[in-house]
Write a structure and sequence with these properties.
- This protein starts with a helix and ends with a helix.
- The protein is mostly helical.
- It is elongated, with a radius of gyration of 23 Å.
- It has seven helices and no strands.
- The relative contact order is 0.16.
Length: 191
């Protein structure tokens, strides 16, 4: 049975994971739609040279923020995980367990590098390692991460490319495409 703190950790982890999956899917759809529009433009304006609809300065930024350094708490949790899941410590276990723990160790190493305390805590719980409670500052940081992800999803989903891709009305879709082509032609003519 999960205590209140464990439930909160699990809830926040679920929110982060789901938000991140939605962001990844949104980025993939956006990039696919942008390529599709670029190809349609090239078909309609074959004499024009254009490398991509979204020129530098106009594109959405899909880069990670500044790199964080793992806190002592993260390092401590990782060390406890390594004691139970490092490949050198698994020699006497059955092959299925070795495979499972190696995957957990790899995930933990990635989580440490990403300073993902929730993922480390999830892995620790899976290995029956007691984890410390989250501080108020850590909870606020995690909630900020969730909000940042949601904001980026909102930026992607508010683009003309997104609206075109998800338009179900053929007339509206054609009208959006026509306006984008005009903008693309203008931008391309200036360069």
């Amino acid at each position: 049975m999960l205590n209140g703190s464990s439930k909160k950790i699990k809830f926040l982890l679920t929110k982060v994971v789901n938000s991140q999956e939605e962001l990844n899917d949104s980025r993939e759809i956006y990039n696919q739609a942008a390529k599709e529009i670029d190809n349609l433009f090239k078909e309609n304006y074959p004499s024009e040279e254009i490398s991509n609809f979204e020129k530098p300065g106009n594109s959405l930024e899909f880069q990670e923020n500044d790199v964080e350094k793992p806190s002592p708490k993260l390092k401590s949790i990782f060390k406890k995980i390594a004691l139970k899941a490092h490949p050198d410590r698994l020699l006497s276990l059955p092959s299925e367990e070795v495979e499972k723990r190696e995957k957990l160790f790899t995930s933990a190493a990635a989580a440490l590098e990403d300073c993902d305390i929730l993922k480390l805590m999830e892995i620790a719980q899976e290995l029956d390692i007691p984890v410390p409670d989250l501080s108020q500052e850590e909870i606020i940081s995690i909630e900020k991460k969730i909000n940042d992800i949601k904001e980026e999803i909102g930026r992607i989903q508010s683009t003309v490319i997104w609206k075109w891709y998800f338009s179900v009305d053929p007339k509206e879709k054609d009208e959006i495409l026509k306006k984008m082509f005009e903008l693309m032609y203008e931008r391309n003519s200036r360069t």
